[in-house]
Design a protein that fits this description.
The chain is an alpha+beta fold. It is built from six helices and 14 strands. It folds into three domains: about 100 residues, Beta Barrel (Elongation Factor Tu (Ef-tu), domain 3), CATH 2.40.30.170; about 90 residues, OB fold (Dihydrolipoamide Acetyltransferase, E2P), CATH 2.40.50.100; about 70 residues. The strands form three sheets. A six-stranded antiparallel barrel has the order 1-9-13-11-10-14.
């Protein structure tokens, strides 16, 4: 084979290989998928720190009368005890003195009522009967005196009777008639009472009842009662102590528990009542379901401590209250004020 023939064959082989490579390259470029178009981002949820709190809030009870020098006398509950609404929780040292004032006021009311009843009923039946008997006796004496006066008047013209005797008989008849009319008037006063006497007695009764109400209100200020059915969480004073500014005890209804989340003000547009959420509790392997129930009305500084070193310590937040489900309420019943993490779904 000549040199020119070998060169020709080599060029033909290179041409075939170059064409195949170009075909493969062009076909691969056509089969490469086009880049996918960017999808719009979906709604983003809200994350926040929160604290566990009873739905009834924790109520701090103090002496109803405010700050006073009276010391605590009796404490009738213990921490963790469940009490009913209106149950007596504690008494202060001045309670017996105020109870005595109430008893005295009740006696004054009873006396005023009896006096009013006596005035309305006028006299007693025995007094009325005695007065009627007196009127009957005066009427009989008047009738007798009237007949004697008429007899004396008839005897004067005949000379059988003296004029003086006739005058005395007429005077006696007139006196007895006046006494009878006076007795009848007294009987009327015994049968009916004067309106002014009744009005005075009613005013005295009203004053006594007002004094009783005041005494009972003062006595109530010496006792602490449960404002609602709940559980005693903490006791800050013991018998013999003077209750200070921190209060006497704390009470809450633990049957329903909430989570109060501090949500950034910029996240408020993504919140709505009824939104579902999850609560992550430190040390718990499960998450608890919750529902947004209330969204606060004011913006304030963040109250939950954040461990993130780059977080803004003066951020502005709104309190959002979430209701825990039954499982969450049962698990967190004894963890009031515990810090948790909240994830609110969009």
């Amino acid at each position: 084979m000549t040199r020119r023939l070998r060169l020709s064959l080599g060029l033909m082989v290179l041409g075939v290989l170059g064409g195949g490579y170009a075909a493969l390259t062009h076909g691969g470029a056509e089969r490469a998928p086009a880049p996918a178009a960017a999808q719009p981002a979906g709604p983003v949820g809200v994350g926040a720190l929160g604290r566990v709190e009873p739905a009834s809030r924790i109520r701090t009870l103090n002496q109803p009368g405010g700050m006073a020098v009276t010391r605590l006398d009796r404490l009738l509950v213990t921490e963790g005890e469940t009490v009913a609404e209106g149950a007596l929780l504690a008494e202060f040292a001045d309670a017996p003195q105020k109870d005595a004032a109430v008893a005295q006021a009740r006696a004054a009311v009873a006396e005023a009522r009896a006096s009013l009843a006596r005035i309305r009923a006028a006299a007693r039946p025995s007094e009325i009967a005695a007065q009627r008997a007196r009127i009957a006796a005066l009427a009989a004496q008047e009738d007798l005196a009237q007949r004697e006066a008429e007899r004396a008047d008839r005897l004067v013209p005949t000379g059988a009777g003296a004029v003086a005797a006739a005058d005395r008989a007429r005077a006696t008849a007139l006196r007895l008639a006046a006494e009878r009319r006076q007795a009848e008037a007294e009987l009327d006063s015994l049968l009916t009472s004067r309106p002014e006497d009744i009005a005075l007695a009613e005013a005295r009764l009203a004053a006594a009842e007002a004094a009783l109400a005041k005494a009972e209100a003062d006595a109530a200020l010496s006792r602490v009662r449960a404002p609602f059915a709940g559980t005693i969480l903490r006791i800050m004073a013991r018998p013999g102590d003077q209750v200070g500014s921190e209060g006497l005890l704390e009470i809450a209804d633990l049957t329903r528990m909430d989570v109060v989340a501090d949500v950034y003000e910029t996240d408020l547009p993504r919140l709505r009542p009824g939104a579902q959420a999850e609560v992550l509790v430190p040390g718990e392997g499960r998450r608890f379901a919750a529902t947004v129930r209330e969204i606060g009305w004011t913006v304030r500084r963040q109250t939950q401590a954040n461990t993130d070193p780059v977080a803004a310590v003066d951020s502005r937040t709104v309190e959002v209250r979430l209701s825990l489900d039954e499982a969450g309420s049962e698990a967190l019943r004894r963890r009031s004020n515990m810090q948790v993490q909240v994830a609110i779904r969009p």
